[in-house]
Amino acid sequence: MNRLRHLPAGLAAGALVAAMALAVPAATAAQAASGRANVVTALDYNSTGWAYLQVPASTQVAGFAEPGFDDSAWQRGQAGFGTTNGTCSWNNQTNVKTPWAVNTDILVRHWLHLPRDAQAVRIQGTVDNDAQVYFNGHLVQSAKSGKCAAGAIDVVVPATYLDCCNLLAVRGHDYGAAAYLNLRVTYVKPAQAF
């Protein structure tokens, strides 16, 4: 027997909505109610799988930021890159996973996948001293942090640069004393309409 059939229309509709809300997982129901989107981490700080190459500052490596560049001969490592000595709070064995020699440049590359509905793709990080940040071959930020300013790398990638398979490439510059580079990539996943 259908119990909703015996309720006035307004109460029946309310009961139906309440029953549907109970059937939806709590987190999803809260998202739908608030209308807020989720921030998802696509590539986190201290991530593995980076291709990297250390070079003298004056060395040019043509096309290293392009998706078609062959980095198969490069070393593989884990972020953060840097030295374990220095005045920055990050220059320690807990935060530095792969050595980066002072007074050199480091070229790093990492592939990441994003869903089609990813929005507001944001690259954040810290560098000592400077960095050029590329996404799918496009320069998206030149960061001048001086001495390890937290959050000096912070840029939202233009939507026209996005693809499902994406390349994050960075050239970090160090000017002596200590070196450090660590990055993450997040995106906004729109809330699902119910």
From TrEMBL:
InterPro entries: Galactose-bd-like_sf. SUPFAM superfamilies: Galactose-binding domain-like (SSF49785). Keywords: Signal. It comes from the Bacteria. Residues 1-29 form the signal peptide. This is Uncharacterized protein. The lineage of its organism: Bacteria, Bacillati, Actinomycetota, Actinomycetes, Streptosporangiales.
